[in-house]
Design goal:
By secondary structure, this protein is α/β, with parallel strands linked by helices. Helix content is 40%, strand content 17%. The protein has a four-stranded parallel sheet. The structure holds iron/sulfur cluster.
């Protein structure tokens, strides 16, 4: 039996950058370096649904966490993750290792360590509506994205634990090296 019985859960855009807000992405399709590593090392890969494209489509603007921090978006995150949650329960109960969830730092939905934040971001995009103040108010803060928070709650509710790690959109190569070290137990 060749199967390694070890699975990682990938935020959607690691395998399909086309789901990202247009203009973002430092690779053409899938994150080749990281995906090649996972395939070569026998990990099963499960692609999570993208919570943003499934609610706002490909023409959405870049958001901050505060805009997604609503009961509606949280409910959407729970709903799309539920089928994955059921698979995780089944795998764990059957002796498989659900090793890690790989998020995207810098995303208001899928950030694990840091996310974009602003109390002012939103509304009309024009100087007369205070666009400059909105841009000035944009910052990065240490927190999880909304989708990651909802996933963490559902895993905890089901008493299932796995590492949460992230590719940093601003520094993908360094973060991928770090993720590989964590997966290999070297960090
Ligand atoms: S970071 Fe999350 S929300 Fe953003 S494109 Fe990737 S999967 Fe979708």
């Amino acid at each position: 039996m060749k199967r390694r019985k070890c699975i990682v859960f990938l935020c959607h855009c690691i395998l399909n950058c086309n789901s990202k807000v247009e203009g973002l992405s430092n690779y053409k399709g899938a994150q080749e370096t990281f995906v090649n590593y996972l395939v070569a090392n026998g990990y099963g890969l499960i692609q999570l649904p993208c919570p943003e494209i499934t609610m706002y489509g490909i023409k959405r603007w870049g958001h901050v966490k505060e805009q997604f921090d609503s009961p509606y978006f949280r409910k959407h995150c729970q709903t799309i993750f539920l089928p994955i949650m059921e698979q995780i329960i089944d795998y764990v109960n059957s002796g498989y290792t659900c090793k890690a969830l790989i998020g995207i730092d810098g995303s208001p939905s899928c950030g694990v360590n840091h996310i974009p934040s602003s109390a002012l971001w939103g509304g009309e995009v024009a100087s007369k509506y205070g666009l400059e103040s909105k841009i000035k108010d944009l910052k990065t803060i240490n927190a999880q994205g909304v989708f990651i928070e909802e996933i963490a709650k559902l895993l905890k509710k089901n008493q299932i634990w796995m590492d949460f790690i992230a590719i940093d959109e601003g520094n993908p190569e360094a973060s991928i090296d770090k993720i590989i070290k964590i997966l290999e137990g070297r960090e």
